[in-house]
Amino acid sequence: xxxxxxxxxxxxxxEAAAIEKAAAALPAHRPRRTDVDPKAARRAExxxxxxxxxxxxxxxxxxxxxVAIPVDETVYIWGFGTVNASNxxxxxxxxxxxxxxxxxxxxxxxxxxxxxxxxxLRHPLASSDEEREAAVEAxxxxxxxxxxxQRPIIRRSLLTAMVLFPIPMVVLLRDLGPLPGEVLRExxxxxxxxxxxxxxGRPVRPxxxxxxxxxxAMPADLPEVQEEEGNLNARAKAAIILVRMEPQEIVSxxxxxxxxxxxxxxSKICTHVGCPIALYEQRTHHLLCPCHQSTxxxxxxxxxxxxxxxxxLPQLPITIDPEGFLVAVDGFAEPVGPSxxxxxxx
Amino acid sequence: MSATVKTAGKxxxxxxxxxxxxxxxxxxxGKVFPEHWSFxxxxxxxxxxxxxxxxxxYLTLFFKPSMIELAYNGSYVPLKGVKMTEAYASTxxxxxxxxxxxxxxxxxxxxxxxxxxxxxxHLLRVFFTGAFRKPRELNWVIGVGLLTMALLxxxxxxxxxxxxxxxxxxxxxxxxxxxxPLVGTYLSFFIFGGEFPGTDFISRLYAVHILVVxxxxxxxxxxxxxxxxxxxxxxxxxxxxxNDNVVGYRVLPIYMAKAGGFFFxxxxxxxxxxxxxxxxxxxxxxxxxxxxxxxxxxxxxxxGWLEGSLRMMPNVEWVIFGYTLSWNILxxxxxxxxxxxxxxxIYPWIEQWATGDKREHHLLDRPRNAPVxxxxxxxxxxxxxxxxxxxxxxxxxxxxxxxxxxxxxxLRFAIFLVPPLVFVATKRxxxxxxxxxxxxxxxxxxxxxxxxxxxxxxxxxxxxxxxEEKAVLMAKPxxxxxxxxxxxxxxxxxxxxxRGARLRAKLSNFYYADNIPLPTREELEAAEAHxxxxxxxxxxxxxxxRRLIPAHDGSVLHDPAIDx
Lengths: 346, 564
Hints:
The complex is a heterodimer of chains A (346) and B (564).
Chain A lengths: L11 H14 L7 H4 L1 H31 L5 E4 L3 E4 H27 L6 E4 L7 H18 L5 H13 L2 H5 L23 E3 L16 E6 L2 H8 L3 H6 L1 E5 L18 E5 L11 E3 L4 E3 L6 E3 L5 E4 L8 E2 L1 E3 L5 E3 L18
Antiparallel strand pairs in A: 1-2, 4-5, 5-6, 6-7, 7-12, 8-9, 9-10, 10-11, 13-14
Helix pairs in contact in A: 3-4
Chain B lengths: L2 H17 L2 H8 L2 E2 L6 H21 L8 E3 L11 E3 H11 L4 H28 L8 H23 L4 H15 L5 H9 L8 H31 L13 E6 H26 L5 H4 L18 H9 L5 E3 L2 E3 L1 H29 L15 H21 L1 H8 L3 H40 L1 E8 L5 E6 L3 H8 L23 H15 L8 H25 L14 H4 L1
Antiparallel strand pairs in B: 1-4, 2-3, 5-6, 7-8
Helix pairs in contact in B: 3-5, 3-10, 4-5, 5-6, 5-10, 6-9, 6-13, 7-8, 12-13, 12-14, 14-16
């Protein structure tokens, strides 16, 4: 049990002595100007009152500004530029109305309130040994009344019930969402999907793409899917980028002739944690993710050349259809986007 | 009796009739709180939280946590007709069509930033002064819990408007959930109601942001304050201040006026900033869509360290038996924060075990007097700052025109090399300051006055330090490391538990061995005699030089002893 040799005996006289001793050591109270000069005290009083009244005035001005200034009015203020007039007027008046109450109260306490330092004693936080023992004893007596320790069969069955009882609360959460199944491996892309420009939806001819250029694209049926489903899930997986480079600049691809005349299609979704990637450096063919700077070499199978992403960007094999528009030869050969436990190598 | 006092008395009587509250009231309005500027950091956190709550309730009246898609038809012209979720549209509405709505949104955001910042600095104050020691370990743990809840609340909050920036943050969070072994994919599907982003998430996050997390914060905060109240606040050493007393001002009136006034100051400053400085202009980002992002996307400042750790981690991923283990995400985004918060939470017990110090501590340490703790803290701060720099590596690269790869590689090494260096440097500084304190006690303060004595000797005149300063310096606790236990007892048998005890002795040595001891009583007496002698020796010369040497405050020139 804890002892308190560092704390004084808690008799009244000892306490009084301890306080007296500490008080004697305290530096002498230096009177403030307001303590000795009634003029200074009156001035401080006026200052405090002025702040409180200033606050009241600001509150009135706030209401005036609220009513008088249209919500879309802008105003030019030097140093701030063109700003919303209502916001700045409301902010300044409300802010000052609040602030002046605070400064007034603090000024009052610092200049005028009786500021005598006081000493109070701390007392040992632990109870005395007798009190502790008494508590333990009481607990033992009372629990014996229940028979909790004497009747193991009740105790154990109760514990079993208590351990199981939270299970429904977990089971109830089951319908929060569907099971993943295979959907993370599937995208809208399938053989023959036409590639259209995002967001215009215009189909792409190879000649639309300048050498060294990059455009964002999507499958032609994406807009319809979104309309039906009302969500962005399909878009989060199907987004691609098209880049064009000289065919001889291509070092390697994820499949034979997956380009079309130097035009390559890659998933736009980073394999790290899923940000869309579009910072392209034409000269090096490097694509950089703006979130965590994973860098992929598009001329070399989309392999990772820098950053935290562990896997290459999946490539989409493309060709042209009879009308001369770019289409997918097949869907993605591997899941797009961030890794997940069941992903494995596929 | 004035009317105010009469009314107060009547109210107190009404309450006392029902709750026997007079004694309680008397005790608590007369409670003494010690004063120090650094004790206001926790207050700032508390007050910003109140402001967050007030402004948050206002925002719930107008914000619609719904992912139903609609075409925007408000008064912000650049986005007219653009398809977006109702959440984003209602946030635009608050910003452009509701009078004072933008102000309240900005107050909410600014006060949230203040809240986390104040908690962080408050935590550093508590750590570096050793305020977490017995009997306040539990309150330290609650504080760590409050910090994590504050981070969670902040992240959930800025993810709600469903603008492009917040959606990008959520995408990253979902990528992190996906990386969890075994359960990640399922967890992600349950959280988002299917695939990302789905149409359920904003309304679910809303419940977390306005009910679950603030509820927990309120509960923890109440416990935090009740413990402070019950155990009484710690105080810094000074004249008259001991481990057994509290020296300060009573709750009524000084503390009430100052703390109450300070609430209005914090509230007022946040409101002024919110009126003058734009924060999170979501209308510039546009609605969220998973295939767009802007360069230079940054989370709020308190998430920056995790963003940095994600950016710095090399790309390690394993595939074992057909399952993917993404160390490149797990290490920086799950294991690292888990370790940081766990070590932080159990630190009071680590130090207690290592030093064998189980006493109650109510007198705060000056950081220099606990050099190893201070250095560990400085080391942790440098670790955090490096991660934080990592979170802004793209901005640094573009601002200073540097290679982002070089910055990242530098940080990958620096994160292991810099913190130990900071530890060593901080410890040297602490020990240096301890030596200086000892010098001050033994030799007084240097005055800068050089005197030539009649026989030609030059001496520098020292001034005795003030009683206040002396009390502070003399309050330095004596700390002796545990002694190394014997491995084998007198019968030549190996002692049970000797290894643990030896480790403990080594750790306690690590904590305490280098401390500079306080001067002994004899040393102090000898030093005082010497100082008196010096002053006596100097006195005639000083008298002579008084016309020539400009007087400096606090020097012996002003010492009344000389004038005699």
